[in-house]
Amino acid sequence: MTIKINQLNYFYKESGQGETVLLVHGNPDSADYWDDVVPILSKKYRCITPDLPGFGRSDIPDNFDFSLNGCQEWFDSFIATLNLQDPIHIVIHDVGAFYAITWAINNPDKVKSICITNTLFFSDYRWHIWGRIWRTPILGEISNLFLSKWLYKKSLQKGSPKLTDAFLEKSFQHIQPKMQRTVLKLYRAMSPHVFKGWEDKYLALTTVKPVLVIWGERDPYIPLSFGYAERMANGQTVHRIADVGHWVAAEVPELFAGYWLDFAEGI
């Protein structure tokens, strides 16, 4: 399905009935990232999974504002266009935090719960090697030119060995020039210092909203040494999974869904 925001088309999937769960993907993904989780959750919940601007099948304007404020403003427009009225559950992976956590901070009354999985939102973060490459002018563009399916698969499976070839084949189909340009702009806008102030607001939000963290311990992009799983939970529930990496919901979807259902049904 698609909706129009400022005359551009944005893709999303929807299934199920009940309280709304908005699942937000990261990089280099799309709404498809949640495909093995949604059939489990949608038996009891209404699940909505968008392609973020410039990712997957969604459009993006040339002048898109990649600041944290700009990201949350788009997210707010998406929610308003779908006319989501009741407080919603949000499930957030990776750079989806730039859109969803910032929106939650500015709209706490519209949030029912927050689930975080392998996400960064702290100003002491240090970019992984690919992040540093994408953030570097010319070098990032060159890396896009020489990206192959083989390199893509090897890079993702390095820390996430449970990712299947079927998942990677489907994911690679969305690696198009539009998405590659979006990734470069997004990463170049997100210097860690932009989280100063926002990170404190997020931690304040966790004192009034239920939070669940589901974290893959083999993540090479957000290492355990950063302590982000516990920091994101801020004293609430953390499930750390030893044998999976960055893409937990794709690697162990049944386990991920089970943890979330137990969490949501206890609220």
List keywords for this structure.
alpha/beta; eight-stranded mixed beta sheet; 8 strands
What does it look like?
This protein has helices spanning 38-41, 68-81, 97-106, 129-135, 139-145, 149-159, 165-172, 177-189, 198-205, 228-233, 248-251, 253-265; strands at residues 2-5, 8-15, 20-24, 46-50, 88-93, 111-117, 211-216, 237-241. The model has no long low-confidence stretch (mean pLDDT 97). The chain is α/β, with parallel strands linked by helices and 267 residues long. Strand 3 (20-24), helix 1 (38-41) and strand 4 form a beta-alpha-beta unit.
What do we call the CATH topology?
A: Rossmann fold
- Nearest-integer average pLDDT: 97
Main CATH class = Alpha Beta
Largest sheet: 8 strands, mixed
Strand order of the largest sheet: 1-2-4-3-5-6-7-8
The CATH architecture would be: 3-Layer(aba) Sandwich
Structural class label = alpha/beta
Give the proportion of residues in helices.
Answer: 25-40%
Shape: globular
Counted up, domains total: 1
Helical segment count: 12
The first-to-last residue Cα distance is 30 Å
Q: How big is the Rg?
A: 17 Å
Low confidence ranges: none
> Order of helices and strands, N to C?
EEEHEHEHEHHHHHHEHEHH
CATH superfamily, called what?
A: Alpha/Beta hydrolase fold, catalytic domain
Portion of residues in beta strands equals: 15-25%
